[in-house]
Amino acid sequence: MTYGVAELGIETPGKIIAVHLNYPSRIAQRGRTPQHPSYFLKPASSLAPSGGTVERPFGTELLAFEGEIALIIGAPARRVSPEQGWRHVAAVTAANDLGLYDLRAADKGSNLRNKGGDGYTPIGPRAIPVDGIGPDAWRVRTWVNGDLVQDDTSDTLAFPFGQLVADLSQHLTLETGDVILTGTPAGSSVVVPGDVVEIEVDAPQAPGAPSTGRLVTTVTQGAVPFGDYGSQPQVDDLQRIEAWGSEAEHAAAVAAGRATPLSSSAQGTDPAEAGGHSAPQPESPLTDEIRAQLDGVAVATVSAALRKRGYVDIFIDGVHPNHEADTMLGVAKTLRFIPFRPDLFAAHGGGFNAQKRAFDTVHPGEVLVVEARGVPETGTVGDVLALRAQVRGAAGIVTDGGVRDFAAVQEFEIPVFSQGAHPSVLGRRHVPWEVDVTIACGGAAVQPGDIIMGDRDGVIVIPPALLAEVAAEAAAQEQADAWVAEQVANGAPVDGLFPMNAEWRAKYDAARAERAER
Q1: Which of 123-137, 174-188, 321-335, 348-362 has the least mean pLDDT?
Q2: Angle of the 467-489 helix axis to the 502-517 helix axis, nearest 10
């Protein structure tokens, strides 16, 4: 076989090095911005020529193409500067960095199995010598079944070609014929058997507008399943959305019969369960016994028990229930918003963002606690997300921001504590940032796993280590307070009764003993 490097006298590259993220369009799509370039190796056995086929393995669904500009090293490079790096590139060609999302979990960052399969690096069909052409002059385009789906240029790269060569050369010697795959722009997506992928790299403004020609690959269906002596294909909803590029693109593929629907669209299904492996729910400190103790106990009573132990800043201030009689008790699951900034929202606001992940993965009995920085002029929860939390069995929602679709949310059974109604959509004041981290909500520190308790008086945070003793004390105090209220209703003065002096305490103990004997 011949590849796009054969005309340079190189039959097979010694190393194929690929960059994870480089194009701003792809970085924005992925929602994570790398500070420095990162890499992985692809085996030479993954090389394939133009006009060949690539097999989607039996039992998999997410084979994705990535059109890329490939650099072919000429003179060996070792510890060169970014300014010198481009001088060590002999030629440029087109490459398809194919990958199988179904096997991403197998090797984490190494990508060996999901990116190293036979035929997963088509390259060619021609190499363009770079003499007289600068590093910013290149364009990569990809077509799937004749439709243009990727179109970007090298002058936009986060990490220019010279920097990539320099960075790699300070760790290892880049030798003649080595290939560097420089990243893919937005538009990478899933292909299915029968699809034809074409990739072209050219320099449209250079003399003669040189081009590699189109690198053509046809997708076929494999018939041999993976053996049980290695990792099996695993797919979840996040993988599906990332592979197709966005929720909208996945939905369009489903409508066209090209994709599997999101499994989390089924009631109560966790996205982590789609590949046949469920994310385990941590064991809750809220045992049946403790729940029984706290049944009917007021938040105010529990807060008094916490104050005795030095916990005075455990109130999520400013929030009120959407139903007057709502009570809430559950384990915290946290979501954090940060202040709005256009570039950060572009990178983190779309797709399966942190807000959607929080509501789509909440477990039964958990309370979603949202840090909205105490800004009421925002809609941090709406009717669809609140309904999703209710369907998944959440014990409640707390946000120190606002709630949109307030009337609709009021119709749901799930308790929602907030600063009130506001019609704004996501992106006005906030960027959904991260899930399951320590947050500050309404002035209180909240960690995942804390106990959240709410009623008409407000919402408090109970450290799990104190739960058992605080629950026992608060339950006992609630019984005593109920007896005191009976005495006051019967005409007793509060002096000496509230709090109880020795005389009243003796009467209370006698009354308790009498009740116990019945």
Answers
A1: 348-362
A2: 100
How do residues 64-76 score in pLDDT, each as one tens digit?
999 999 999 999 9
Binding-site residue positions for substrate: 382-385, 404
What number does CATH give the domain 6-232?
3.90.850.10
Which residue has 């990539």 as its token pair?
164
The residue extents of the domains of the chain are 6-232, 235-277, 312-462, 475-517
CATH of domain 312-462: 3.50.30.40
Q: Report pLDDT digits (tens) over 311-351.
A: 999 999 999 999 988 999 999 999 999 999 988 888 888 77
Beta bridge partners of 16: 42, 179
> Which residues, other chains included, contact 211 with Cβ-Cβ below 8 Å and sequence gap of 6+?
126, 128, 200, 201, 202, 203
Report the half-sphere exposure of 181 (CA within 13 A, side-chain side): 32
Q: Which residues does the annotation place in the binding site for Mg(2+)? A: 405
DSSP one-letter string for 432-459? EEEESS-EEETTEEE-TT-EEEEETTEE
Whether 312-462 and 6-232 are alike in CATH topology: the answer is no
pTM across the whole model:
0.53
Q: Which two tokens stand for residue 3?
A: 């590849």
CB-based contact 174:78 (threshold 8 Å): yes
For residues 120 and 101, the answer to whether their CB atoms sit within 8 Å is: no
Range with lowest mean pLDDT among 43-57, 251-265, 441-455:
251-265
Binding residues: 382-385, 404-405
